[in-house]
Amino acid sequence: MNQLKGVVSHHEREIAELRADRELAVAYLKAAMESLDDPDERAAGLLALRTVAEAHGGLGAVAAEAGISRESLYRSLSPKGNPTLKTLLAVLKTMGMRLSVEPEHQAHA
């Protein structure tokens, strides 16, 4: 396979951008969390949380700081994952974030 020098994967670039810009990471995660409401889009939301955790020092470091096993975090933040509220809160706290509640956007008739 021919390797191109200087080529960075989309995922690596995404992690670098999220690591460099905290406001971007918060906005990215906020949009992703909205997708958790839809079972058909839940995988994307979990993968976005995983990407932000990777940008925050890696899943191993986040898991250790959150007090959960790395394997458990990998499973929880996989496309078919189903993190507990405790895990979700611990991961967000480790990254200096927290959950918040907003009213659902409804179209006016």
TrEMBL record:
Query: Could you list the residue ranges forming a coiled coil in this record?
Result: none
One GO molecular function term of this record is: DNA binding
Organism superkingdom: Bacteria
Q: Which InterPro entries match?
A: HI1420, Lambda_DNA-bd_dom_sf
* Pfam families on file: dnstrm_HI1420
Spell out the protein name for this chain.
Answer: Addiction module antidote protein
Q: Which organism is it from?
A: Thiocapsa marina 5811
